[in-house]
Amino acid sequence: MKPRFAHWARIGLYLLVIAIQSAAPASAAPYAAYVIDARSGEVLHARNADTRLHPASLTKMMTLYIAFQAVEHGELTMDTLITVDKAAAAEPPSKLGLRAGQRIKLRYLIRAAAVKSANDAATQIGIAIAGSPDAFAARMTRTAAAMGMNSTTFKNAHGLTQNGHLSTARDMAMLGRHLFYDYPEYYNLFSRISTDAGLREVSNTNRRFLKAYKGADGIKTGYTRAAGFNLVASAERGGKRIIAAMFGGRSTAQRNAKVAELLDLGFQRAPRYAKVHRPGKPAYGPGLVGAIVANAVRAPERSPLPTLRPIPGTEPPEEMLVAMAATIEQTVSAVETTAVPGPDGLPVTAAAATPIPRPASLTADLRGKGDAVETRVVVERLSTSGDRHWGINVGRYGSRYKAERVLLQTALTELGTLGTALRKVQHSARGFDANFVGMTQSAADLACRRLTTRNIACTTLGPT
Question: What is the pTM of this model?
Fold first, then answer.
């Protein structure tokens, strides 16, 4: 009896171990799904949609969204040359193979992150925009909150498992919808089977699904041991567009098959005709933006007021200087707090339409001081007389709004050399040139050298 009992005990223990091993992946990567009609945002199916799980490389959807946002608002351009940071080069696979110190254009980093899901490229995008991985992760979380992704917290730009780095199927489907509607000019990236990523040609991690499912044109895969096999997919058939998000697949094949079922379900349940309700773009402003460009010095919260130039033989009374400073201070406050609709319909900080009235104390001073005060000249714009015929160009943009914004951001970044230059947008058939003018040759050369060291494209403009 004892040998037989020992035999059956060993078999029972063996079966128990198998059962535990089989159950382990399910507990590590719970299943969740969310399906929406992309046109209206209507929910067509949901299961565990609000369970916070590991998103894996679905994270890169937000990394790419912020990259597109940064390009749109002139923080940098697709052709900005970025110096690879050692932190990005050290990321584990999947990776493009970046080496610390080498330079690569932003467009290639974006392609590698979108198509190959390269962790080194994603990390470098974050460093280039925000200055550090942590600062970029904070911006990712703020942008998610502005979109209504209330259950998402990002800790890195690539999606490798990290404590607190969590999202939901609902939030990721919402992010996929924003990518489609907010940046349609870049959406084709997600449907490329392969692409040139600068260092080499890379293949799409989602190529099997793109080839197998009719109408599929994106968006992003993700896998880690903790997350399982994740996918956010978008497809269009017969005028309908469906977005499905799935977490916790057991394999690539099983995940693809399940997402195909979810998309089929969405096409069956979605009405033939639906009014398109585009999601509103998240707010863009100081609360959401990281550093202006890679390695840039952060802009001060408020520019220092210029020192008045005294006229020989006259010294303005102290009370007049106080009143004038108060007037300027009120104007600065009005500029910072007044919002007007921008070109895309979002509020944009701008100067108040009605100028702030001069303080009564200053008016009284001006009336009572006679010619000595009235001969004072206030210089509002820098003269280009003398040797100040030089300038610099910091890029060409598709709209006056973008060019003016880049000029302002650049001026704040390099106050030491651009603080007295005149910002000027030059319009031509080719676009809107963002120029600083009214500079000496030496000042223009110095400004360009300093901007170049911060990876800001710059060209010196000679006398005209």
Answer: 0.60
- Residues 193 and 115: their CA atoms lie apart, in Å, by 8
In the annotation, is 27 catalytic? no
Residue the block writes with tokens 């470098």: 124
Q: CB under 8 Å, gap of 24 or more: what pairs does 254-258 form?
A: 254/229, 255/228, 255/229, 255/230, 255/231, 256/208, 256/209, 256/212, 256/213, 256/231, 258/33
Is 333 a residue of the active site?
Answer: no
Query: How far is CA 312 from each of CA 54, 309, 367, 369, rounded to the nearest angstrom?
Result: 70, 9, 21, 16
What is the Rg, in whole angstroms, of the alpha carbon atoms belonging to the chain? 28
Residue 237 CA to its chain's centroid (Å): 30
With tokens 């890379």, the residue in question is: 202
H, E, C per residue of 169-223: HHHHHHHHHHHHHHCCCCHHHHHCCEEECCCCEEECCCHHHHHHCCCEEEEEEEE
pLDDT tens per residue across span 295-348: 333 334 444 444 444 444 444 454 544 454 454 445 434 444 444 444 444 444
Catalytic status, residue 214: no
Closest CA relative to residue 126, chosen from 160, 72, 87: 87
Residues 6+ apart with CB under 8 A from 271: 37
- CA–CA distance, 459 with 445 (Å, rounded to integer): 9
For residue 283, how many other CB atoms are within 10 A of its CB?
A: 13
What are the tens digits of pLDDT across the range 169-215?
999 999 999 999 999 999 999 999 999 999 999 999 999 999 999 99
Query: Distances from the Cα of 88 to the Cαs of 19, 83, 100, 103, 296, in angstroms?
Result: 40, 10, 8, 12, 18
Contact (CB, 8 A) for 170 and 49 = yes
Residues of the chain with pLDDT under 50: 1, 14-28, 290-316, 318, 320-322, 324-325, 327-329, 331-356, 358, 361-385
For residue 377, the 8-state DSSP code is: -
Torsion angle, CA of 344/350/353/357, rounded to 10 degrees? 170
Q: Which of 94, 95, 116, 117 is the catalytic position?
A: 117
